[in-house]
Amino acid sequence: MASILKVNEIQHSGGTSALTLSSAGVLTTGVKHAFYMYRNAAQTINNAAGPIIVQFDQQRINEGNGVTLGASARYTVPTGADGMYVLHGHARLNSGNDGNASVGLFVNGSGVVTAYYYNEYYEGHNITTLQSLSAGDYVELRVANSTGGNLPIGQPDAGDTVFMWGYRLG
Hints:
- This protein is mostly beta strands.
- It has strands at about 10, 15-20, 25-30, 35-40, 45, 50-55, 60-65, 65-70, 75, 85-90, 100-105, 110-120, 125-135, 140-145, 150-155, 165-170.
- The protein is about 0% helix and about 50% strand.
């Protein structure tokens, strides 16, 4: 026995939309939890100062309202948004100075993934991780510079050069 169910929307008993189905067959959920932050203006990363928090000054996506910009830039998991998250960061020192550098994702102040590299000519690195996060957990991107001089990060160059994004899988 086959059945056909014809609906446009499934609602929670409280009246909020849980799922919506378009005529094209695209299924969407209510609140999505996703973010994208980037550094538009220069920020100096001091030599040999350890991992410095990237002070993101712009956002493109803030689904769920977890983004904080400025000196304490981070993504904080909102209430009710617990789950498995895909997190990604990218950073580069805006310099051809040779020397050691790193970029890392930190959850609640502790490093969870870091890429160490030898900075040559405006080289950047990507890092990605899968993390189980709970409401109130926060994610930061940090950069370290050991090239012998204080160096800038940020400022667009044919696109963003320092950014962090993530989304909840479920």
